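JOB MANIFEST
job_type = single_chain_structure
chain_count = 1
residues = 275
[input]
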Amino acid sequence: MSTIENQSILQLRDVTKIFARGTVDEVKALDSVNLDVYDQDFVTIIGSNGAGKSTLLNIIAGVFPPERGGKVIINGDDVTNLEEYRRAAYVGRVWQEPEVGTARKLSLEENLSLALLRARPRGLRIAINKKRRQLFCEALARLGLGLEDRLDTPAGTLSGGQRQALALVMATISRPAILLLDEHIATLDPKTAQTVLQLSDIIVKREKMTTIMVTHNMEIALRYGDRLIMMHEGRIVVDMGEADKKTLTVSDLVTAFERAAGEQFKDDTILLSPR
């Protein structure tokens, strides 16, 4: 676990989320989750469909609140009831689909300007000026994709991988307290997915970002990050640091899951090799 004076950047306390409460379709997506994420942690979260991974990120990002009594604390501030748009000052997020995180009709420069605006108080206008353009150029140049020469290009003309790379820069350019990577390579082809994963790792380490990355693949969860969490039926059943995960194989991780969950592992899809 990478910590500076053991500083907790994110605290989840007794976080539960129930959908369709009181109906035949009622689902407890999160079940009394408690979690501390520390400064510069790079946490990978693994779990089968319905484990609660995306719900957890949505709670952190403010898409919806936890059930009464649950708390979300970021950088010491209780943000439990803070609306999603106001939570953007604390949280940067890259979604599964490049189309969600970027506006296709706006230029790269305009997209990056909007990313900065999301992290500022309402009413503060962010103009595109020489200094800011230089900031955008430098941020894009670090990707090594030549996007710094295409500031006036509409985002919709980029490939899926380029748009996800742009989304990474947008999510981190304002230096949020925590970065959420929500299965952000799931829709990319294998070669592009590997490139975006490597770029993500570089950005997280270079910018010293506290990061949570949800993945649907055990090998990726073991390969990236310095802490691994496994979820099952809305609960955290495995939580291990870098020293432990470095020595594990996928088979070892399945065994750890079965011991913690008390049942046989059944989802073969997350055992597959990385895309």
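[summary]
Confidence is low (pLDDT under 50) at residues 1-5.
Residues 109 and 136 are 7 Å apart (CA to CA).
exit_status = 0
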